[in-house]
Amino acid sequence: MEESTTSTGHRSIEHAGAWALAHVRHRGRSFPALVQHNRVLDLSTRDEVGRPASPSALLQDWDAMLPKLERLAETIGDWIDLAGLQVLSPVEPRQIFQAGANYRTHVLDLVVAHHDGADGRTPEQVRADAAAHMDERLALPPFVFQGLPTAICGPFDDVILPYGAEQPDFELELAAVIGRTARRVPVDQALDYVAGWTIVNDITLREKVFRKDSPGLGADWLASKNHPTFLPVGPVLVPRDALPDPGDLRVTLRLNGQVMQDASTSELIFDVARLVAHCSEVATLLPGDLLLTGSPAGNGLAHGRLLRAGDRMDSTISGLGAQSNLCIPEASEGTA
């Protein structure tokens, strides 16, 4: 995918803690950077951290790099003004794990929205049945699927609505960035494997989630969630210690200035520790991987207002900065 030339302009990146990790482009060159007070320090020139070419290099040895980054955050000089720089995704994951149906109200809204009435149940009955199922889920493993890294774009890049898309929707989510290789991690140790937090908007084509031609096959996550630019990430990675408790962060998305999603991560059915532990039971988590925790209620489908070309999404999560993405149409059929 061709990179956008969108920059931060005059936007301010406010984040928790004394510093955050970013990936920026300046004068035709991209590099990992510390962000502090809307200025950046080019880490690719710093011997202290091995002159890394990307944030991935830092995350491969995060435990060793973290104290060095903390010391560099106190460095005087060599800082660049953030304004005008292009901000890329702060991570380049090899794997993306996506928790689904992880906010109670969101699940109930979607079940009702997708119900076609063929079974004779009223919307109230459908919601009550789904609520009972939610209670049963707590005794079961979380529901997690995988996404593709090629869907990632920057936090201020344009989101391309594919040719022929009927129901493009937004799903703002807290994401954990893995900082250590993890396999069969117990829940009480799971957060030790998290390097930090970032913002993700998991754009979804609602009409593609369930195959009408083969309903028995289940959800088609490839077709519904993995188009180029469908995963704006960033603007920064905030270290875990700056937000040690991700269990009460505000998740807010505005569409053209109107609040659509506004919830707390305290509403998660399965918390971050449970999700990390579950994923590590199935797969080996790698440094730099992304774990999306699910999206709260207030998606476009529930509001009856899906994304259209010309829409702007402004998204924030407490302490993690903000995204702003303009929706544009794909140029023509077959254009990626």
TrEMBL record:
Any idea where the Fumarylacetoacetase-like C-terminal domain is? 96-325
Q: Which GO terms describe its molecular function?
A: hydrolase activity; metal ion binding
Quick check: keyword Ribosomal protein in the entry? no
Name one matching Pfam family.
FAA_hydrolase
* Annotated keywords: Hydrolase, Metal-binding
Give any single GO term for biological process.
small molecule metabolic process
| Family listed | Belongs to the FAH family.
Name of this chain's protein: Hydrolase
In which organism is this protein found? Planosporangium mesophilum
